[in-house]
Amino acid sequence: MLNIDLQGRTALIGGASRGIGRACAEVLAQAGARLILLSRNPTDLQALKASLPHAGQHHILAVDLSDAAQSSQALQTLLQTEKLDVHIWVNNSGGPAPGPAHTASADAYRQAFEQHVVASQMILQVLLPSMRKHQYGRIINIISTSVREPIPNLGVSNTIRAAVANWAKTLSRELAPWGITVNNILPGFTQTERLAQIIQKRAEQAGCTFDEMARQLSAQVPAGRFARPEEIAYAVAFLASPLASYINGVYLAIDGGRLHSA
Ligand SMILES: NC(=O)c1ccc[n+]([C@@H]2O[C@H](COP(=O)([O-])OP(=O)(O)OC[C@H]3O[C@@H](n4cnc5c(N)ncnc54)[C@H](OP(=O)(O)O)[C@@H]3O)[C@@H](O)[C@H]2O)c1
Q: Residue 262 has what pLDDT?
């Protein structure tokens, strides 16, 4: 029987308290990984940690990625204090607020760049020494199908995802000699609080109910429904595992077939 076995591996999971990040935490813990659970709210993280298999082996890191320097410093301190090496990084956090590109403030772009690009780069520099030492690294960025087809009314998000995608693609070539892979997951509509906020906003703009807007969006998906967060997490677990050692620099859409482009 073929198993995804992450025993002996440590994974840093961003945006772990809810949604896609939480599902990744649950699935990677089931696969045997030790986890560092990162998001802002320590109470939510403690509750998640307590609910996971082998709860005692996991750690929490309550930081706000919109302060990249503080977040990466806190990670460095945790790794040194607990003597942890990280092999797997699920690079994930909350998406920028919805809205058109042309009305978004310069600060909204600056803030998104800090949270998604600068924080990613600073965390990468904390994690790289241990990945290189072990000749094993799995960096999995949770971004969006918008890098293939920009999504209306997600102007800042569309912009910043493209930056992360190209950062990752560049890294994938640079880091491959150390056994480190860097891949991008592009989730489609996935049933989380983030999606609920987007549906609510669109419903208000269109003057329809939440349920009507949800029906309109799910009708865009050939599968006819939104993804469950664990459907993203299973792909993350595979990419995190030794089984995916030759998959590097890919953009994997998990969208029920919604994208029209390849
Ligand atoms: N759901 C979808 O349909 C969909 C589709 C495409 C792309 N995506 C993208 O995939 C990612 C995850 O989506 P999701 O739906 O799971 O989002 P979500 O339900 O809003 O969860 C976001 C997670 O990130 C954490 N977080 C938010 N801001 C943070 C910050 N500044 N610093 C540290 N942690 C932060 C949140 O916890 P705290 O609030 O405690 O910090 C939470 O754990 C997002 O970037 C989203 O835009 C989602």
A: 81
The set of residues, in sequence order, having a beta carbon less than 8 Å from that of 260 and lying 6+ positions away, is 149
Ligand 1 centroid from CA 72, angstroms: 18
Cβ of 64 closer than 6 Å to ligand 1, yes or no, is: yes
Q: For residue 215, give its domain range.
A: 192-226
Domain count, the chain: 2
How are beta strands 34-39 and 59-62 bridged, if at all? Answer: parallel
**Does 94 sit in the ligand 1 pocket, CB within 6 Å?**
yes
Tell me, yes or no, whether 205 and 233 share the same domain. Answer: no
27-47 exposure pattern, b = at least 16 Cβ within 10 A, e = fewer? bbbebbbbbbbbbbeeebbee
Q: Tell how far the Cα of 2 is from the centroid of ligand 1, in angstroms.
A: 31
- H/E stretch holding 59: strand 59-62
Determine the distance separating the centroid of ligand 1 and the alpha carbon of 93, expressed in angstroms: 4
pLDDT tens-digit readout, 190-240: 999 999 999 999 999 999 999 999 999 999 999 999 999 999 999 999 999
* Average pLDDT of every residue of the chain: 97
Residue located nearest, by CA, to atom 17 of ligand 1 = 194
Q: How many helices (H) and strands (E) does the chain have?
A: 9, 7
